[in-house]
Every structure is written in C-alpha cells, then in structure tokens.
Amino acid sequence: DALPIWTNVIQEHRDTIATLQADIARLEAQLAQQTAARSTMASEEDENMLDDEVPVDGMASQIRSLEHVTGISFSQVQTNVVRTDDEIRRVYDLTGMIYELSFAVKFEVNESTMRILWLQSKVDSGLQGQLKPFLQRVEKTCNLHGFFKGLAKLAKATRERARIFDRFTKEHPKVLAVKGASIFADTLSTVNSGHISFDIRWTIELSELADLHEECQLQPRAARQALSLDQDGVLTSLPKYFHMMCNLWGAEKAIQFVMELFAQDIKVVKHR
After folding, report:
1. 199 and 187 Cβ atoms separated by less than 8 Å
2. Beta pairing, strands 196-206 & 185-190
3. Residue 108: which residues within 8 A CB-CB, separation 6 or more?
4. Tens digit of pLDDT for each residue in 85-136?
5. pTM for this predicted structure
6. pLDDT, greater one: 158 or 69
7. What is the pLDDT averaged over residues 238-257?
8. C-beta atoms surrounding 15 within 10 Å
9. Which of 77, 166, 171, 181 has the greatest count of CB atoms below 10 A from its CB?
10. Any residues with CB less than 8 A from the CB of 7 and at least 6 apart, and which?
C-alpha cells in the first residue's frame, strides 16, 4: 500500500490555506441579528400612526447593513408604500451584485407585522436554470435572508476557486490553463505536459435548501513509459489520495501537492 509514502510527503508540504468557514459563520450570525431586529421593530411599532404619516423604513437600513458583511453591493434599493383600509405595505425592488453574481429581488412587506407577503427573485440568465429549485423554494417561503445567504455562499465559493486556479496558472503559465470555465464547473488542465498530464475538475452546487456542495477531482494521465515505471501504483492511487487531501486540507493545498509531485516534469516543460 502506497499510503505511508503519500502521508509522509503530505506532511512535508503542509501549507496554510484560507477557508470560508469564518466568513460564513459571520454571515449566519448577521442574518440572525437581522431577523431579531425585524421582530423588535414589529413589537415597537406605534399603533397610533397618523393617516398621513409615512412609516419609518427600517427594513431598508437592515438591507443596507448586509453590504458590510456579505460582499453584497446594491445598485438599486427602491421602495413604494401601498396603503389599504386596515394596513400599510411597502414594496421593495432591489438589484445589485454579490461579488461577480448579479441579482434582482422584489418583495412586499406588511409594515405592521414586518412579514414578507410575497417575493420574486432573479439571477444571471446563465444561472437561472440550475438554481431553479433554490429560487423556487426562496419564493415559496418568502425567505429573503435565505436568498442572500445562498447566493453569498455560491459567489464566495466560485470567487475562491477562481483565485486558486488563477494562482497556479500564473505560477505555471506554460503548463496549466483553465478550460470550460463556468460558475458550476471549472477544470484546471495541463496544456504542455511532459510524461504526465492531468485534469482537476472543481464543481460547485447550491441545493434547494441553500447547502453548498463542492467536489474537486483529479484525473491523471501518463505516457506508457511512465506507467511502466509506476510499480507502486502511485498514479492510479493519486485520485483517491487527492480527494482525501481536499477533504483534510482544502483544494489549494491538494493542488500544490500535485504540482510539487510533478515538479520534475513541469520543470522540463518550462525550459522548452
């Protein structure tokens, strides 16, 4: 079994990587605070509001505060007060960006209860189809925070993947390139390989319940001569160990390990 050999090599190349866990935790804490603030505002609302008085738009300030913790940038925050005989409602029309992802969301709030009555959402046309289950659930449950939370997860994950792939393509411009780039799947591939080449496919999915699922897989390829020298089956075992490293230390560390493993082959290509 080649596992002890791989374990020793992994220990020698351990690096510090940035993760999204702290940011996601802060986002969830902020969303919880916003929900609590909405409840407080509803309980403190003045029941004797004059007929000609426009209600204080507390929801708008809460929406703006999200910009400080989630990477959201609003290009438009429009509101419109709708009065009926027994209640006041406010319609919100928001557009903006979460990192590189654009969005639009429109919803109506009962000012007395601070309850969202209906919600419509829209994202980039290229994402609308694959995010359909998520968006449908958001609209059915009128879950505004869930909408922002899910998109923030997706946007931040794709941004981090782009950063990592960009790092390695800049470090090895003659060897690596990103192919088939999309929000949900990117592949880092060798373009001028020596005896060994590989593809690293990184997929990202957002579930109906706003759970993020990421999968980073390695598929090595080798010339017949290299395979004949691989008596310990290192190349055939590499996808399994790469998956283990991704789970333990993250994709960036795992890719770094692969690049160092194939350093001799890469060095030859760089000097061609």
Report:
1. yes
2. antiparallel
3. 82, 89, 90, 91, 92, 116, 117, 118
4. 788 899 999 999 998 899 999 999 988 888 899 999 999 888 888 999 999 9
5. 0.70
6. 158
7. 90
8. 10
9. 77
10. none
